[in-house]
Amino acid sequence: VFAGMNGSAIENFSCVIYNISFMNCTWQAGRDAPGDTQYFLYWRNSRYDDAMECELYITDENGRNMGCRFQNVKIEIEKAYFLVNGSSKNSLIQFYDEYIQLYKIEKLMPPSNITVNCDEIKNDCIIQWQQPQISHSKKDKCFKYEINIKYK
């Protein structure tokens, strides 16, 4: 049972992990939320962790929390749990919650140390690179690469 006014819960909740250990989560205010509604994000990386409130909120021009920035995020095997609740002087605000598999929202870094060695006599090139760093696996089996070669 969702206590609170219909349409007051946040909408369009979205998170992305980038640069290996940073995560941004954003949302929009509920379409029928009172103007004084303030939202608060709590999350738990696994069932064994304690829930933590966001430490660095992203706010809109009215000071309303519309997102959160996280540092030192570690991707666990389990789904992470996110809860956004709200408060208003005028009415009860519905909460929003979601479980997210964090590895699915990681934006990968590009490969590094790219080298190209061409042999004009053999008319071939050897291209080498190091796989991008990722936070959830040390395996390189899950990578597929696409090379786009442009001749000058």
Features:
mainly beta; about 0% helix; elongated; four-stranded antiparallel beta sheet; single chain; 10 strands
Describe it for me?
With 152 residues, this protein is mostly beta strands. 0% of the residues lie in helices and 40% in strands. It has a 4-stranded antiparallel β-sheet with strand order 1-2-6-5, with no helix packed on it. Strands 4-3-7-8 form a 4-stranded antiparallel β-sheet, with no helix packed on it. β3 and β4 form a beta hairpin. The radius of gyration is 22 Å and the shape is elongated. The termini are far apart.
Structural class: mainly beta
* Structure summary, number of beta strands: 10
**Strands of the biggest beta sheet: in what spatial order?**
1-2-6-5
Backbone shape: elongated
- Number of separate helices: 0
Query: Hey, roughly how much beta strand do the residues contain?
Result: 35-45%
Order of helices and strands: EEEEEEEEEE
Query: What percent of residues adopt helix (DSSP H or I)?
Result: under 10%
Largest sheet: 4 strands, antiparallel
Termini separation comes to 64 Å
Mean pLDDT, to the nearest integer, reads 88
Summarize the structure.
The protein has 152 residues and is an all-beta fold. The chain is built from no helices and ten strands.
Any chance you could write out the topology, listing elements then pairs?
Layout: E1 11-18, E2 22-28, E3 38-44, E4 52-53, E5 57-59, E6 65-70, E7 80-87, E8 96-100, E9 112-119, E10 124-130
Antiparallel strand pairs: 1-2, 2-6, 3-4, 3-7, 5-6, 7-8, 9-10
